[in-house]
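Quick one - inputs below.
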Amino acid sequence: MTISTRTLVEVRDAVADGAATAVDVCTDYLDRIAATDPSLHAFNRVTRERALERAAMLDRSRVADDHRPLLGVPIAVKDNLCTRGVATTASSRALDGFVPPYDATVIARLEDAGAVVVGKTNCDEFAMGSSTENSAFGPTHNPWDLARSPGGSSGGSAAAVSARLVPGALGSDTGGSIRQPAALCGVVGLKPTYGRVSRYGLLAFASSLDQIGPLTLTVRDAALLLEVIAGADPCDATAAPNAVATYADGLDGDLRGIRLGVPSGLLEDGVDADVGRVFDEAVAAFRAAGATIADVALPHASYAIPVYYLIATAEASSNLARYDGVRYGHRASLDPATATLTAMYDRTRSEGFGAEVKRRIMLGTYALSAGYYDAHYLKAQQVRTLIRQDYEAALESVDAVLMPTSPVPAFALGDKVDDPLQMYLLDVFTVSANLAGLPAMSVPAGFTPGRLPVGAQLVGRAFDEAGLLRIADGYERANGWWRESPTL
Amino acid sequence: MEFEPVIGLEIHAQLLTRTKIFCGCSTRFGAPANSHGCPVCLGLPGALPVLNRAAVELGMRAALALGCQIAATSVFARKNYFYPDLPKGYQISQFELPLATGGHLALPGSGVEVGLTRIHLEEDAGKSLHEGFADSQRKSYVDFNRSGVPLIEIVTEPDLRSPSDAKSFFTTLRDILVTLDVNDGNMEEGSLRCDANVSVRPAGQSALGVKAEVKNLNSFRFLERALEHEIGRQTDLLRAGDRVVQETRLWDAASGRTAAMRSKEEAHDYRYFPEPDLPPLQIAPPWIDEVRATLPELPAERRARLVRDHGLTRDQAEQVMRGRAGLTEYFEEVVAASVPARAAINWTLGEVTRTLNEADDQVDALRQRVPPAALAALVALVEQSTISGTVAKDVFEQMYASRESAATIVDRDGLAQIDDADALEVTVREVLASHDDAVSQYRAGKHGALGFLVGQMMKATRGKANPKLVNELLRKAIDD
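Output:
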């Protein structure tokens, strides 16, 4: 079996059965990263030595019947997740030199489950963007076409899984940052229900929207990863106490009786013709597998983009205030004899943040300012409630809402980065799941004639990841687009 | 024209929790700089706050004791501003929906009722250190030990009308918070801090004047002096036909003046918004009842009870409460040992207090030397006329010195009162014989002369004679 065809479950089983050692597996993947990543730039940092040490430790301390769910599985994590002793940058100069003294809760849970973290993946700076071009360290390239963007902001994680550099990765999703790159790179991406996964150790972008989730080749792999990272956390007051299901056990492939809702009103404008065609085929495939398709109305969904860009930027303007040069990260070099405190702040933050981050801090600061708060932030919160109510109403009659993940396939690097509004509009189908707090996932649904992957998105009921995964798995079994891999 | 000051106070009180409000770090004062820190209270990337239940309960204690309404749902909010001792770039506080609203505090003596606007929970910032280092000319340092220590902010209505009332409010509030074990009352360590909003207006006018916020009033004396100065400053401005400018002013104790710190235009826009990292704080009635059940008796309640249950005058109640810590409890235990309250309070405020003051002892020492039951036994000897009040004072002094019981001392020293007329007869004759003058005066109608003769009798019996009996015997002997 070649590495490029292995799923996360297969890698885990190979180690658990003794067919391969953790070190063998880790070395294979690290070699593949070393050979391929220079053309992709999916990683900001590969922790080769640490990963091999840990794999060796796993092999040494192996006990019989070690059934840890991720035993010996190499995992890549987005560079906005704190890793103790390993630089964590969120792809920003602002965090130059910052080495976290602690692990994010999800990192600790991965390692407890036997996983081997092999590196930190590239992303848009502080997860702000949809193309991974807003990285201080340069963009990631789409494995299906190196001239194109992998999407973003978790573009590095999506590209790494797509190129089979790792069998699974973690990303974060504030307005589509797991699902959109998953769609553009042809992999599975899951944004859990808000509160399903602890955010402790995730560098906050927009605290009421951020969720960490898996990017994998298959739905079953995503289910397994979610099972490991999900659950209550005494370090995160917003992590929900709801019991975590054994998600992978419920995947029976049966779509009969499943009801799906397509918000056709929302899809009338702005969807690329090739994406539209692939999506129509996906709808037909669901139907063929026994699901029923109904039309659903999401009357306030058209406000999702402005609402999202008010709330997310407002929270970001506050969340990024801590990057002030006082305690860690970049600090402007000034003459202490003459420099004022204000000058230190101004220079440090001007030098540390990129253009998109500055733009969002300014937008968010404005939205929260005295005299503007009611008209902007408060109004956006009110509309957010309406959007959530739309989904709740729709999900009373259907099991999940089905729509394209992204209105366009992977776009050329440099194509949209100078037009922020155009870039923001790419989030049209993804942001509402974050605003409503609902679980949503993107599954590979086919290819454009130019052989660019297209994703179909499912949005489910709160804390019903089990139901969502079951539907996605049913579709995947009937189609298996994930088996197609990019040639590199 | 007469001017009237209008004053409202904002008081920050550190809550006596073991750990900080959003993390498990210690709140202990005086530790080496930056030894109590973690990702949460240092504002490291990715760290999240988790609310300390003990801080909420202490806030609830203060709110309940001050008669506030505790909100079923209160919401934490971020107060955004940049300063090096504020690690996250925002302070987690409460804004639109505070922990508690309403409530009031009556000033002792004057009876002025001061309304409370609100009580909210928040975290303290770290401490900037601008002096005391070799390179302080070029650098400032920050100690984050205090960062994340829980506070309540208590905001009053503008109900105060004089610096002395403001001082009285602050001292009364401090006593309550200390009694509640909510705050240690230590203003030197900064665990209790006060800011004041002050304006003046022509007497009789109902509209408020333009106010100044005066900061750094960290002692009772500074509060009073700063308010006096600031009221004078504003009054002088208005008398001269000038206007008061809305601004924040800083009290400088050294110069005894307030100085402008920042104007209204320079005021921060804190961009408050609900803290997304913390769910709304829900407080159900059973939790409130649970906390209410643990409240100790507050000063005003205690004063009222002492007057009501023991028939003390208001003045006696205040005196015993203002006495050494535990004196009221001592008094009540003496009463509980079947001593009439009037005798018990006279003893407590008289001999007991005098002895404690002279020895500079605490009530603990008193309890060891003269437990409430022992004092009760002594008072009983007086009530039964076994000894006179004068003798009793001497006996108390001996009890305090030797820890012996009253009965032991009275027996051994033969101090029991002489109630036997026969036993006194010889002495009566002797006294009358040696004071002819007084006897003649009495016979001439100067009844005061009898008192002199009684005194001579007491002297001759070393205070042991029953004064009432002596009176009767003398009168009878002279009349015969």
